[in-house]
Amino acid sequence: MSFRSGVATFAGKSSYWFLHTFLHGGSSLPGKITLKLDPNILRTLGAKYDVIVITGTNGKTLTTALTVSVLHEKYPSILTNPTGSNMEQGIVTTFLNAKNPKTGRPLAVLEVDEANVIKVTQYIEPKAFVFTNIFRDQMDRYGEIYTTYQKILDGVALAPNATIIANGDSPIFHSKELPNSIQYYGFDNEPDSDFKAKPNTDGVLCPNCEHILHYHSLTYSNQGKYFCPNCGFSRPELTYRLTKLGEQTPTSSKFEIDGHPFKIQVGGTYNIYNALAAYAVGRFMNVDPEQISDAFNANQQVFGRQEVIDVAGKRVTIILVKNPVGLDQVLHMIGTDTHPFSLVGLLNANYADGIDTSWIWDGDFEQLTDREIPAVITGGERYKDITFRLKVAGIPDDKHIVEPNLEKVVTRITEVPTERVYVLATYTAMLQLRKILATKGYIKEGLGV
Amino acid sequence: MTYELNVAHLYGDLMNTYGDVGNILALNYYAKQMDVHLNVKVVSLEEDFKAADYDLAFFGGGQDFEQTIVSQDIQTKKAELTKFIESDGPLLAICGGFQLLGHYYIGADGEKLPGIGALDHYTLAQDHNRFIGNIIIKNQETGETYHGFENHQGRTFLGADERPLGNVVSGKGNNGEDGTEGAIYKNVYCSYFHGPILTRNGDIAKHLLVAALQRKYPDTDFSQQAALSIPATF
After folding, report:
1. Are A164 and A133 in contact (CB under 8 A)?
2. Rounded mean pLDDT of A417-427?
3. Which of B18, B21, B45 has the CB atom closest to A211's CB atom?
4. Which residue in A101, A117, A444, B169 is deepest, having the highest Cβ count within 10 Å?
């Protein structure tokens, strides 16, 4: 370590200690201080690690957590970054905060924001990249899906020897020739048929000849066994296959990968993709399927984004929603609940939520209207937008409670006729709600996101 | 339902960013209240658009790549779309759809891409900047105020026979210079508004539906539909 890196590291570490000890925080400021003193610090800090970078629009956090669990079955020392610290400063802080490994070459499994991949690969050549998916997400920040993928590839270009482990069901990950070795994972559990994606789906043009893609089978959005009837472009050969999809509930999923049975304690097809990605990394790193199954069974806390809270006898599940594909998947998952439930939609439009609320119209709320939902509460700073969205989706006025104030939303929740309540909230609405729930003693402050 | 309208959702599988499909949902919502059933059909690449088959059309915004492809394909529909517009067919065009009804637009890589020239505007680009944010405009003729969210790189300049949809009260509008937003030509309404536009501005949905009804059923009195009250949603 150079003198400069040494000073920078010391400054960052001591600021972490100070923030952590006295202010109960410190996720990116130490990185910021260290980067100021030595902009090339990641080269020094990351040199002794084998690094796996996980990136994409949805599923980064859970895939990272699951991958860490899976790899722990074989590797004792793994460094990872906490939720929300997926930009350069947070990543530097993560390395600063690491204890020196006792033996061998340690692993680092990092969730990295799409545009920050290059800020890692400038200094570190990862062993592998994991691409989860690319969907429209807060486009006021990065632009379109092709721009986002290009940002990732700009980073990958500096690491041609890294293996890419990519979602093979997503056509965009098969759209560019790359020098890297690539392994694909995907769903292979249905007989072939021939159809197009739903009209309001993003990214359905053949990257090769620009005709509309068809599908032999499709999981959701534009993901599946795609093919182009015009030029023959098709899904690449899969290295890791989901071979059977079993029972799905809002709190569990059963499935088989490469013929091995698995169960995870979380609902949603999107979470099966996350598990499939973690399985793929595990197999790539020579972890046995049985060990992977143990890891999936053992680790339930990683599913914290869907924790269930007891609010005066109501079983309240709070789910973060941030983009149309994620929202659709959450709505689908809720629909697998066989018990009656009430629904709460909380919409804010601050920077962290996405300042444009138009995306709620891409979410298929209409799928809920087959269900008898006895109470729907809408609130948050943009309650008018979410209220009208649900009105148009067909929620009858006599079932609809409009309550902008989140404090009163909590009271309303205690009054609904069902035991089960699903709360869909954007990021800052979720933080505000959690604060209120903590004040009222339903949860402890500082838990979760 | 007593009445029926056939709606063309132009390139609905490619031009569908920022919740623009919400305009179809809002049309449906208000149509039901007017005793009107909508048959919505996506008309996309290599598919025919026949002016006589449709009573109403919607054309949303898209990503740069998709819009480039649509710019080529739409030339095959140019004659029929122009015929639809010139025969007072009601059409709502948003963002990329707005641009493609005009003469041309400048794409993301600086190349000049053709529209169909059915309307007399053209669209330039701006360097490394987009107009992003909430926007409010006022239509001087109706006195109606419209709310939306704009997110566009293009700067559009209207032709002599187009009126703006409104004058900018706050936000950027067509080009950030002349205070106009959107365009009206015959029964065509154009705008950069997402939000989507018809979910926050039900009056425009009503204008489109009533125009389509009067055109399809010329001997019927639709004053009751025209009087439908639209509560504020924003």
Report:
1. no
2. 96
3. B45
4. A117
